[in-house]
Amino acid sequence: MKTETTTMNDPAVVPAEICVALRDAHSIALMGHVTPDADALASMGALWLALPELGIYPHLVLPEGTVSRQLQYLVRYAGLRHCACEDLQDCDLIVALDTAKEKRLNDNDHLGILTNIPIINIDHHTTNTEFGRWNWIVPQASSTSELVYGVLRELGCQITPTIATLLYAGIHTDTQGFSLSNTDPHSLRVGHELALAGAQIPEVCERMHRSRSRGEFELLSVVYRNTRVSDDGRLSWSTVTHEEIQLTGCQASDIDDQVEVPRSIEGILVAILFSEGEPGKIRMNFRGERGVSVLDLAGQFGGGGHHASAGARQRGTMEEITNRVLPAALEFVAGLEMEAKIDDCP
Ligand SMILES: [Mn+2]
User: 23, 74, 173, 258: which has the fewest C-beta neighbours closer than 10 Å?
Assistant: First the structure.
């Protein structure tokens, strides 16, 4: 289907066409990406809660079993409910949120029903393929939640404390508590406005940072134990095999931000976590520090995402994939013209 708008760059300017399309719709399917994170859940949930006020009937496509244990509190808190297939029969619009590619949509059984329905695509992934009829892709935005906040404001929706808490959780997570390089005046301003609207910040922080299960804690200890650093101190990586994940009692959906463990070492420019959620399928999380873009590196292995945060998947054993990826990663960091240490930290 023909693309009607692609507006980029400014998280504060909501394309008018998107608001018109939302207002004109009768029944909407809200979708996020597979293994939804807090940003995807919050973006979907906020629209789901807010749109009925405008006489628009949204349906959440959020198949059972796709939300990690750590994020189920958001589902419970906002009372999010996965729609039935028959609910989607009358849908005249899809809103895709936080999803870089159409095939990453978390839609399982629904795809058949939803073909040929126009899509509004709201996202902040640099590698978004602009698969929608209307695309609002803002790589500079901290999160899709930040963009959804703008949409709700533009539509004149009330930002209830529940909606504020959801969106705050989305922004908080994608900025890691406003600590990553995507933290800027606009994301801080939206955070501020959400706080004023009643976002439950201490609860979000406790859920995000101090609510690990024993299994997730064990999984982290495996990631710490398996962390390695290159001789030049620029690359760090860790691995978790399917067997190791199973031994901790965790599942593939529990692999989320554990790449922060190898990333946390001083002087690291690129960190990678290799995880085998399903036997023979290796997922890679790439992170770049101090402005280093890992997009090209992830792209070499069929992946994508953001400059500072990208992912890829490959089939093979852990040994095969690390043997394939690590030489490329070592070569990549060796080629970076950058000192491995910051001398004068703020
Ligand atoms: Mn996001």
Answer: 23
Assess whether pLDDT exceeds 50 at residue 340.
no
Distance in Å, CA 39 to ligand 1 centroid: 5
Helices (H), 93-160: 111-114, 144-155
Q: How many beta carbons lie within 10 A of that of residue 294, not counting itself? A: 28
Same domain, 39 and 142: yes
Determine which helix (DSSP H) or strand (DSSP E) holds 58, and give its type and residue range: strand 57-61
Q: Which helix (H) or strand (E) holds 74?
A: helix 72-78
Is residue 343 situated within a structural domain? no
Ligand 1 centroid from CA 148, angstroms: 11
Do 83 and 129 lie in one domain? The reply is yes
How far is the centre of ligand 1, averaged over its atoms, from the C-alpha of 344 (Å)?
31
Contact predicate 244/236, CB 8 Å: no
**Number of separate domains in the chain:** 2
CA dihedral 276, 277, 278, 284 (to 10 degrees): -50
Question: At 144, which CATH number?
Answer: 3.90.1640.10
- Do both 169 and 304 map to the same domain? no
If asked whether residues 125 and 247 sit together in one domain, one would say: no
This prediction's pTM = 0.87
Both tokens of residue 254? 């529990």
Q: Is the pLDDT of residue 282 over 80?
A: yes
202 and 242 in one domain? no
21 and 96 belong to one structural domain: yes
Q: How far is the CA of 125 from the centre of ligand 1 (A)?
A: 7
Regarding whether 253 and 133 lie in a shared domain, the answer is no
The 3-state DSSP class for residue 226 equals: coil
Say how far apart CA 132 and CA 31 lie, in whole Å. 12
The Å distance, Cα 71 to ligand 1 centre, comes to: 14
pLDDT of 66 above 80: yes
Looking at the DSSP bridge assignments, the partners of residue 239 are: 274
- Please state, in angstroms and rounded to a whole number, the distance separating the CA atoms of residues 299 and 304: 6
pLDDT the model gives residue 2: 54
The dihedrals phi and psi of 90, each to the nearest 5 degrees, come to: -95, 5
Domain extent, residue 159, equals 5-209
Tens of pLDDT along 308-334? 999 999 999 999 999 999 999 999 999
